[in-house]
Amino acid sequence: MATVTVHEAEQSPDVRRRPSKRGELTWxxxxxYPRQGEWTExxxxxxxxxxxxxxxxxxxxxxxxxxxxxxxxxxxxLYRLDExxxxxxxxxxxxxxxxxxxxxxxxxxxxxxxMNWEQVEAAEDAYPNGADLxxxxxSPDDESRKRDYEEKxxxxxxxxVKEYWIVDPQMRTIKVLTLSRKKHRTDGEFRxxxxxxxxxxxxxxxxxxxxxxxxxxxxxxxxxxxxxx
Length: 229
Description:
Blueprint: H1 6-11, H2 13-17, H3 27-30, H4 41-46, E1 53-56, E2 59-62, H5 68-87, E3 91-95, E4 100-103, E5 106-108, E6 112-116, H6 117-123, E7 133-137, H7 142-158, E8 163-168, E9 173-180, E10 183-190, E11 195-197, E12 205-207, H8 208-213
Parallel strand pairs: 7-8
Antiparallel strand pairs: 1-2, 1-5, 3-6, 4-5, 6-7, 8-9, 9-10, 11-12
């Protein structure tokens, strides 16, 4: 069965006027949106996506959908961080998907984000402008690793994010970066058997072993014994 390529669909108005066929690109949907590099922040926020999409200089970056181990780690850290922040009345902790506007032309969706009360108030029940601390759980593909280790430290530092945690299930490390002179520098790199600590939130720490143990499938509870009643 013949298919239509992107180039053919772009060059042929006749192709785009007829309904797309099985095996072809669904250009009826694609034509509703701008080309890559031409997106605005307003169009990005109007995109009702049920997947992770970040905004980088007019380009939409589609992040891989997280699998269960990834989500279990993010949930574990969310609960621990939220418990600490709530007990100390420091602000709010949230989990992705939640677009965080860093600066003009850059919107990221950290796996876990902590905002102080001033940032919470400034968000006005919409989307946050910046954060105090963000956590990224690294996905195994090369593109994600490059993004989390090389690109996002620059973005988060430029936005004034005071602390950035890189949680790497493949390397089994937690790297804590802190802001110093507008750059993120490594405050600590923690491995199994150690405890990862926050420089920003005095008293907040997590066991590296506990973080990565959280990725495992929970044990199914044993059935209750019938006592004859």
